[in-house]
């Protein structure tokens, strides 16, 4: 007689902090699929990218804010959270890592800056199938019912599939009514970027300070991109890789350059 299959361990993290509504929504969405363990920053860490803490000690404390769920808050970055979860909390790799649900978009070039995606990427680097979820609604009181359905569907598919080592997905969900939602569209990352500037101001003592400002510009007319999908009532799912080698350019310079 075969023994009972071992329960899947689902590591949940984010970059908005352990008290953000989005992480609670994600925990509720994926809890039916396995044993959830939460390790998340103790404060917002948006835009931290793949930063790690090396100059100051890290703190890791248990928190009792999700009923029946083991949860920890970390003083470091989202990537720190994943590293500490593996080494000090789980003492093993999780079966899957889910990050989010982020308050705001992480489509196109935003994947480079995103702490949400960097947490998932860190787990993927370790060979763990991982996914970051982001909802285009920035408000604290956002309705996460549609993103929860998307998160459950994608996480379930991932757990049921034989995925390659290092699998990483970037999922974004539009702000629409459920009845207008067309489903999940598998996409490529759009060629889009922020055109940025700094707003210069002066404090009461006359010393200059700066606020980063910018406008998001989509330079991609493709109908297979994440930006297009989101504008047309789909959730976008982009398979992401962390090998940054430009193989096409590599092949060209191997031929053209005489080194």
From TrEMBL:
Cofactor(s) named in the record: a divalent metal cation; Mg(2+)
Keyword terms: Cytoplasm, Hydrolase, Metal-binding, Nucleotide-binding
GO cellular component: cytoplasm
Chain coiled-coil ranges: none
Domain Survival protein SurE-like phosphatase/nucleotidase: 10-195
GO MF: 5'-nucleotidase activity; metal ion binding; nucleotide binding
Cofactor binding comment, as recorded: Binds 1 divalent metal cation per subunit.
Assigned EC number: 3.1.3.5
Enzyme class: hydrolase
Domain of life (superkingdom): Bacteria
Keyword Cytoplasm annotated: yes
Binding site for a divalent metal cation: 15-16, 46, 102
Location relative to the cell: Cytoplasm
SUPFAM superfamilies: SurE-like
Catalytic activity: a ribonucleoside 5'-phosphate + H2O = a ribonucleoside + phosphate
Function of the molecule: Nucleotidase that shows phosphatase activity on nucleoside 5'-monophosphates.
PANTHER family for the chain: 5'-NUCLEOTIDASE SURE, PHOSPHATASE, PUTATIVE (AFU_ORTHOLOGUE AFUA_4G01070)-RELATED
Family: Belongs to the SurE nucleotidase family.
Protein name listed in UniProt: 5'-nucleotidase SurE
């Amino acid at each position: 007689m075969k023994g009972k299959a071992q329960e899947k361990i689902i590591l949940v993290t984010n970059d908005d902090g352990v008290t953000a509504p989005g992480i609670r929504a994600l925990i509720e969405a994926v809890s039916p699929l396995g044993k959830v363990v939460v390790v998340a920053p103790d404060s917002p860490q948006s835009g931290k990218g793949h930063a790690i803490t090396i100059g100051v000690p890290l703190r890791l404390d248990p928190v009792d804010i999700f009923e029946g769920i083991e949860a920890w808050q970390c003083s470091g970055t989202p990537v720190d959270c994943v590293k500490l979860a593996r080494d000090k909390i789980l003492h093993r790799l999780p079966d899957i890592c889910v990050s989010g649900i982020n308050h705001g978009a992480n489509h196109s070039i935003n994947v480079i800056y995103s702490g949400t995606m960097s947490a998932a990427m860190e787990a993927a680097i370790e060979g763990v199938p991982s996914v970051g979820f982001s909802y285009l609604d920035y408000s604290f009181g956002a309705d996460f019912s549609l993103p929860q359905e998307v998160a459950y569907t994608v996480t379930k598919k991932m757990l049921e599939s034989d995925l390659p080592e290092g699998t990483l997905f970037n999922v974004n969900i539009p702000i629409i009514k459920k009845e207008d939602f067309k489903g999940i569209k598998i996409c490529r990352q759009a060629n889009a970027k922020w055109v940025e500037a700094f707003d210069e101001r002066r404090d009461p003592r006359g010393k200059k300070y700066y606020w980063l400002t910018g406008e998001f510009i989509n330079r991609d007319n493709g109908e297979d991109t994440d930006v297009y999908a989101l504008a047309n009532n789909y959730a976008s799912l982009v398979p992401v890789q962390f090998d940054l080698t430009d193989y096409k350019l590599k092949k060209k310079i191997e031929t053209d350059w005489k080194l």
